[in-house]
Amino acid sequence: MNFIAALKNYTIKKKLVFLSASISSLGLLLSAAAFMIVDFINLKQNILDDHIRLASIISNNAVAPLAFKDRTSTVEVLNSLSSVGSIDAAYIYDVNDIIFAHFSRIV
């Protein structure tokens, strides 16, 4: 017995209630899916923005130690990234593209 044949046995009132409930459920499902997609896109953008801000802060704080070739202070600046769980490694390069200081969670 198919779906259409089963609906023939119901009254018009029950058919209308079923139709309105089905349309409402579909609308709620589609709006929930849209909200989830928008939240996912916004989450990715927020993470990217946070990392750009962190890179800017680290670069501003590393200018003086780099100018004076102070590796200890530069490593201190990079070690401040230890409180950021999503960053596993960071490197600062000198003018000659040689690693001047680095931070790494991986031992």
CATH class: Alpha Beta
CATH architecture verdict? 2-Layer Sandwich
Shape: rod-shaped
Neighbour order of strands in the largest sheet: 1-2
CATH fold field value: Translation Initiation Factor IF3
Mean of residue pLDDT values: 92
Number of helix segments? 3
Q: Which structural class should the secondary elements be placed in?
A: mainly alpha
How many β-strand runs? Answer: 2
Taking all Cα atoms into account, the compactness measure Rg is 29 Å
* Amount of helix: 55-70%
What is the straight-line distance between the termini? 66 Å
Tally of domains: 1
**What amount of the residues lies in strands?**
5-15%
Biggest sheet features:
2 strands, antiparallel
Q: Which consecutive residue ranges, at least 5 long each, have pLDDT under 50?
A: none
Instruction: Provide the succession of SSEs.
Output: HHHEE
Word description of this protein:
By secondary structure, the protein is mainly alpha-helical. It has one domain (11-104): 2-Layer Sandwich (Translation Initiation Factor IF3), CATH 3.30.110. 65% of the residues lie in helices and 10% in strands. The chain is built from 3 helices and 2 strands; from the N terminus they run H-H-H-E-E. The protein has helices spanning 3-7, 12-67, 71-79, and strands spanning 89-93, 99-104. The protein has a two-stranded antiparallel sheet with strand order 1-2. Strand 1 (89-93) and strand 2 (99-104) form a beta hairpin. Helix 2 runs antiparallel to helix 3 (71-79). The longest helix is centred in the middle third of the chain and has 56 residues, at 12-67. It is rod-shaped, with a radius of gyration of 29 Å. The mean pLDDT is 92.
